[in-house]
Amino acid sequence: MSKTKLEYIWLDGYVPTQSLRSKTKIVKDFKGTIEDCPAWSFDGSSTEQAPGGSSDLILKPVALFPDPGRKKAFLVMCEVLSADGTPHASNGRATIEDDDRDFWFGFEQEYFLWNPETNKPLGFPENGYPAPQGPYYCSVGAKNAFGREIVEEHLDLCLDAGINVEGINAEVAAGQWEFQVFAKGAKEAGDQVWVARYLLERVAEKYGVAINWHCKPLGATDWNGSGMHANFSNNLLRTAGSKDVYDQVCRAFAPVVKEHIAVYGADNHLRLTGKHETQSIDKFSYGVSDRGASIRIPIATVENGWKGWLEDRRPNSAADPYKVAARIIKTVKTVPAYATVNGK
């Protein structure tokens, strides 16, 4: 009789930014499929998701990954359900309308490696600041790249777990890094981002380093904030062959700026200032190869005959990829050309 560790991972109910939670279940003779992962329960009163007098909530397994950091173990991403089996209010994944996996997402996840003793990023002196931004982006060498051992170990774990990480790089500020995840299907993309975040937190634990997901952890300084740019496409965008279709899609985002910002991460006004390659939070713009726009049309899309994808640059590093994807999908589905292509 063999025993396997299943690490059940879910999102708590903290507002405005949810956190990862997890606990281990030992099962016998596990066959290695999501169908073999039983539903489980947890105390929602300890995670801001239920009152103490009625605290049982249900973990519904939705995605399974090998856990390369432990022996005989798997990572189980879960949705949170209420006791009656309906999606809990904190369950952003359940709001995604993409059952046919028409929408593909690539998320560019930025973050800071954070020294909990100095309460500053790695590479920052205890007092003051390091040299100004410039040499840290895509840097190499101990003078400019800080925490690479954590970043490399995290990348290996993600790849071994089957997460589709497409790249990593040091970012503009000292101690700031990025990884990119892509998946065909909005729910799948969200699952992979959250499990990649979980693995990063776990790796950093070993080194006594924290992960700072806040979009502007250095406050009102000239140091860059952190984003989670959302690259997205669907059949319409992948086959359009028309600038007019791309204009239609981009213009559909203009009337719903507030609705998007509402799920694009807390404190985004500190990051979306019109500086540091951002558009102001209360404005909307789009343009080809424009990193100062709300939505960038990649030059590769244009060169491919207007067949490709778009990049929403507004989501921040602490945003929930499930909620970001759900809102983008909802907006794109209002475009007349979408209804035509999909026979709606």
What does this protein structure show overall?
- With 344 residues, the protein is α+β, with helices and mostly antiparallel strands.
- It folds into two domains: 89 residues, Ubiquitin-like (UB roll); 238 residues, Creatine Kinase, Chain A, domain 2 (2-Layer Sandwich).
- It is built from eight helices and 14 strands.
- Strands 6, 7, 8, 9, 10, 11, 12, 13 and 14 form a nine-stranded mixed β-sheet that branches. Strands 2-1-5-4-3 form a five-stranded mixed β-sheet, covered by helices on one side.
- α2 packs antiparallel against α7.
- The longest helix has 21 residues.
- It is globular and about 60 Å long.
- The mean pLDDT is 96.
What is the topological layout?
Blueprint: E1 3-11, E2 20-28, E3 40-43, E4 56-66, E5 73-81, E6 104-115, E7 120-121, H1 148-161, E8 165-170, E9 176-184, H2 186-206, E10 210-212, E11 228-233, H3 235-239, H4 243-252, H5 257-261, E12 286-288, E13 295-297, H6 299-303, E14 310-312, H7 321-332, H8 336-341
Parallel strand pairs: 1-5, 12-13
Antiparallel strand pairs: 1-2, 3-4, 4-5, 6-7, 6-9, 6-10, 6-11, 8-9, 11-14, 13-14
Helix pairs in contact: 1-2, 2-7
